Amino acid sequence: MSITRKAVAALFVTGALAAGLAGCAGTPGTPGAAGSGTLTVFAAASLKATFTTLVAEFEGKNPGTKVVLSFAGSSDLATQITQGAPADVFASADTKNMAKLSDAKLLDGTASNFATNVLTIAVPPANPASISSFADLAKPGVKVVVCASQVPCGAATDAVEKATGTTLTPVSEESSVTDVLGKVTSGEADAGLVYVTDVKGAGDKVKGIPFAQSDQAVNTYPIATVGSSKNKELAAAFIALVTGSEGRKTLGDAGFGTP
């Protein structure tokens, strides 16, 4: 049976449309190939600078995509997600808070570790309390600020205290590492325990005092798609950017280590 030219033309157009649609679909989990939509990312406060940069890259590669970032302490974010907050992606500053969501069956698949971080001491540029070691933070009269124990930076502080046998008496315990840094930059504290990335990002607003015992509490950062996400393909593509070469470079430039 012969096929008319009209039929051949119709078949050609159908095939071309199918090929075009396939090309637009992209590959799930590949940066820059996830279409468009709105993505809500819950991320640890210490990731604010790096994730803001990565989101700009992601939106540029995905025209029509809008990424909404929400930064806070990892424990607060995990609680919000547990209570039904509409997040698509969760990036935690420790594995403990990610495990809470995993145990509650609130993740889509498994989390991927993408960075590490360690504590350092942040002091005002003039270092008025003459801090030079972790032990100095326990001296009488020193106004030190730390994260609350349920926050990853607070848990890390507890681990260092235990490892060194040093007991701190902070003047305040904050819900995020950025709040600790704020107390130091405002002059309300003589010192604060923050991540090395926070000191690097603060520039000349603070001075960093490294201490050898920081390796007793290395925080590993995991990232995962939240199970209730309505845009899992876009979430997977964002995670691929964070864990890929571009993400590793941006994180490395900010002072994060590799997992």
TrEMBL record:
It is a lipid-anchor. NCBIfam families: modA. This is Molybdate-binding protein ModA. Involved in the transport of molybdenum into the cell. Part of the binding-protein-dependent transport system ModABCD. It is found in: Cell membrane. Belongs to the bacterial solute-binding protein ModA family. Keywords: Cell membrane, Membrane, Metal-binding, Molybdenum, Signal, Transport, Tungsten. Residues 1-18 form the signal peptide. The lineage of its organism: Bacteria, Bacillati, Actinomycetota, Actinomycetes, Micrococcales. It comes from Arthrobacter cavernae. Its main location: membrane. GO terms for biological process: molybdate ion transport. Gene3D superfamilies: Periplasmic binding protein-like II. GO terms for cellular component: plasma membrane. The complex is composed of two ATP-binding proteins (ModC), two transmembrane proteins (ModB) and a solute-binding protein (ModA). Molybdate binds at residues 46, 74, 177, 195. One of its GO terms (molecular function) is molybdate ion binding. SUPFAM superfamilies: Periplasmic binding protein-like II.
